[in-house]
Amino acid sequence: MKPIFFLFCAGLAVWPHDPAASTSTGGTSSKLISLFPNLFGPTGITLPNNEHAAHFTNGFQSNFSPLVGSIVNQLTSIPIPSPASGFLYTFDSSLGVYSRSGQSFGPIFAERAETIGKNKFLAGVSYQHFNFDRLDGLSIKKIPALFQHQPAANIEYQKDVITTDNAFDIQVGQTVAYFTYGMSDRLDISVAVPMATASVEIVSEATIRRIGTSTEPDVHYFDSPFPGRDRQTFSAAGSASGLGDVLVRAKYTAVRWKNGALAAGIDARMPTGDEYNFLGTGSVGARPFLALSYRRGNFSPHVNVAYQWNGNSILAGDVRAGTTGNQSDQVQLAAGFDLGVTRKFTFAADYLGQQQLQGNRVRLVDFRAANGTVFPNVQIKRARLTQSAASLGLKVNPISELLVTFNLLMALDDNGLRDRVSPMVGLSYTF
Fold first, then answer.
1. What's the angle, vertex CA 25, arms to CA 19 and CA 27, rounded to 5?
2. b vs e for 323-334, b when ≥16 Cβ sit within 10 Å of the residue's Cβ?
């Protein structure tokens, strides 16, 4: 069984990436990451007046890299279901065989300390979908950004600004195949292989605010069908699918007592996903963790603590300059319980918390124009980013060693890029 298992995982790990198909009025690219900086062009909005270099830049344009970093850190931090088995097996010395133990099928996104059992093998698959709608409390359907004019000889020209209302549609689907093998009564080795799809659409409505050129409409104007030539729509869209970042896990039950156990483990993340298409992080990662669990009848509480270390990636650097940066490390906590309601049905509930030590935060600020008019703008700054979520689900054992899992992952705050409710469904079988 072991050679077949690892050959199968190795085959999945070299699955080729599917290229994205994306277009933009500000430029074209085959990668999703280019949609953001190319939406208005690399120098901001350039108007069609050949006699005046009407280039408009803005804080938002220079913030595109951290904005991309903020979005991608969220996309690539999507939790995956635990590869731990829902069934536990212990050796019965009187009969000389392994038998199922426990009256609960375990948590869904958290980890319990017990291992699957020597020479036992688990294969499973899950699918979850995310339709993001908030970014630090702002609706991603309406994020303002303001462009200022570059310095000009005529000071009146540079008083004009361009305001934009930006709508983002960001969706991610993730199918994860996971496998666990019991190397011994205390050691499990697991592999999780995600296949992801990502789609991004951006629509920006831009409006010229003629503060310095109200009597000279032919200085700044769009080549657009809108009346007065003061409005234009910029758009970009694309999608991609392919292999995500493969995860390899080792978990060892270090301490056992009558009704509980303490395990230590580590996840190794491989940069197999295409980071330019939001399918992977673009860096190696390591996540040591501790899992404490307790069993009393059909009730099993558990607590996990972990530290996610991340390496360097283009996603944390400057996409336009092609430089890499260090992705933020994370501290993670999971606490909850699973309850065996019947021998065929388990309810699982967890609190999932994580803190990015150096995240990107987005906030609204006011920009006061030369005539005193105030326009909304967005500002991005480096700060700790704490997120909380609740996981509520159930596991059903219809036949034999088959488990069917249903779960809802619910955001408990508006920090970072959020989807209010994300559904997940999964199947697993233990041999």
1. 55
2. ebbebbebebeb
Sort residue 202 into left (φ over 0), alpha (ψ -120 to 50) or beta: beta
**Nearest alpha-carbon partner for 144 in 60, 36, 259, 22:** 60
Cα–Cα distances in angstroms (integers) from residue 23 to residues 15, 32, 133, 318, in the given order: 25, 9, 22, 21
Task: Please give the pLDDT value at position 159.
Answer: 93
The whole-angstrom separation of Cα 340 and Cα 45 is 60
Query: What percent of the chain lies above the pLDDT cut of 90?
Result: 48
Domain 2-430 CATH superfamily: monomeric porin ompg (2.40.160.40)
* CA distances in angstroms from 261 to 186, 252, 256, 292, 361, listed in the order given: 11, 10, 4, 6, 39
Q: Report whether pLDDT(96) > 60.
A: no
Q: What beta strand segments (E) does 295-329 contain? A: 299-310, 312-318, 323-326
The whole-angstrom separation of Cα 58 and Cα 378 is 10
Residue 271 CA: distances (Å) to CA of 274, 277, 405: 8, 13, 28
CA distance 371 to 134: 32
Q: How far apart are CA 119 and CA 188, in angstroms?
A: 10
Domains in the chain: boundaries: 2-430
The secondary structure of residue 29, as a DSSP letter, is B
Q: Is the pLDDT of residue 234 over 80?
A: yes
| DSSP label at residue 340 | E
User: Which of the residue ranges 15-29, 186-200, 351-365 has the most confident prediction, judged by mean pLDDT?
Assistant: 186-200
Q: What are the tens digits of pLDDT across the range 131-162?
A: 999 989 999 999 898 888 888 888 899 999 99
One-letter identity of residue 315? L
Beta bridge mates, 57: 148
Q: Which range is least confidently modeled, 70-84, 150-164, 196-210, 243-257? A: 70-84
- Phi, psi of 130, deg, nearest 5: -125, 130
For residue 99, pLDDT beyond 50: yes
Q: Is 156 helix (H, G, I), strand (E, B) or coil?
A: coil
